[in-house]
Amino acid sequence: xxxxxxxxxxxxxxxxxxxxxxxxxxxxxxxxxxxxxxxxxxxxxxxxxxxxxxxxxxxxxxxxxxxxxxxxxxxxxxxxxxxxxxxxxxxxxxxxxxxxxxxxxxxxxxxxxxxxxxxxxxxxxxxxxxxxxxxxxxxxxxxxxxxxxxxxxxxxxxxxxxxxxxxxxxx
Length: 171
Known about the structure:
8 helices
């Protein structure tokens, strides 16, 4: 299996070169055009990404997520939501890397087979980094008004969190 995976990339590149030669395509010219287009996309997306990263760091450093967790815990705990998963539900729409770091800590602290570990895993797999996705896709497309996208996506994330808890508790 290791041999196959180490040969896969060279085989794909060789296949592309052979296909381009058969079709008489200027492969290097196509590569240059694609690279230039990628750089243009990066330049158009960079301001949105920089703003998002700064906002996430400001919220995390200020203790906003901890304050919100403390405020939501008395409301959500009686409904069966473990207090330990609240931070993951709050951070996931904002930061993918932050939420996966939190998930990793939760899995090492509580175990992957614990109820909290299972809920956190289902939640991480069924929610989206909403603000990141909107920043990337809308930023690269030049769309300035998000309309109902963010509220609808956050509602979907909220439903995913609820159903993650319900699914693990019922099954």
